[in-house]
Amino acid sequence: MSLETKTADIQAIDRFIIENTTYGRAPLVLEIRLRLLRDDSSLWRSFSNERNDSKTPRPYWAFAWSGGQALARYVLDHPMTVENKRVLDFGAGCGIASVAAGKAGAASVTASDIDPLSVRAIALNGQANKISIDTVCEDLIFGRNQGWDVILAGDIWYDTRLARHGLKWLRGFAINGVDVLIGDPGRTYSPSKGLKQLSSYTCRSVPDLEHPNLQQVSVYQLLPKKN
């Protein structure tokens, strides 16, 4: 792929994101501006149960999910967690935790997601907050440590692969001295052992798609051992 083609593709993705979002803020983290899904966006149809909409990718990158909000709030309130450290925001979504890490003084911030729309949304959100964020569009599970001191992971326990392989991968980092912080409202595949609760918040996704049972969100440190 030529540089011109790649640039054109990025510009097209950015236009798509801008057309379907508007700037907003999550009540738990008012310091951060984010591109969030517009009320009139056709992308809302992707959340329909109708079969005709089943092929439309859901824009998870256009929401400030509760786990990400909680991580961002915790990092901003406890800047020493990331200050002068190299941070990975794993499964970053809209990048709210990435932006918070940058604002809190991280030496560098890398945001990863498997969705190319997500990594471009993160780049735009970083620019809106004047924060430099490196983005990676790939599956990092079982990849090596690229120099990270801290890993942030919000709202990632939504399938069995992450619950098994992702948890094992993250715990490997914890074993080797990396601080792994998780933001989670108690999703279906959330781990129940090997966690130290650091803080708790009440919040919902913005725009709001959270189940009423998922409005109490905790930030945990992942421990090296399960027990």
Features:
globular, 30% helix, 5 helices, 24% strand, two-stranded antiparallel ribbon, disordered N terminus, 227 residues, alpha/beta, Rossmann fold, seven-stranded mixed β-sheet
Care to describe what's here?
The protein has one domain: Vaccinia Virus protein VP39 (Rossmann fold, 3-Layer(aba) Sandwich), CATH 3.40.50.150. By secondary structure, the protein is an alpha/beta fold. 30% of the residues lie in helices and 24% in strands. The chain contains 5 helices and 9 strands; from the N terminus they run αββαβαβαββαβββ. A 7-stranded mixed β-sheet has the order 5-4-3-6-7-9-8, with helices on both faces. A two-stranded antiparallel sheet has the order 1-2. α3 (96-103) links the parallel β3 and β4. It has helices spanning 3-20, 66-77, 96-103, 116-128, 160-175; strands at residues 21-26, 29-37, 86-90, 108-112, 134-136, 150-154, 179-184, 195-202, 216-222.
Quick summary:
30% of the residues lie in helices and 24% in strands. The protein is of the alpha/beta class.
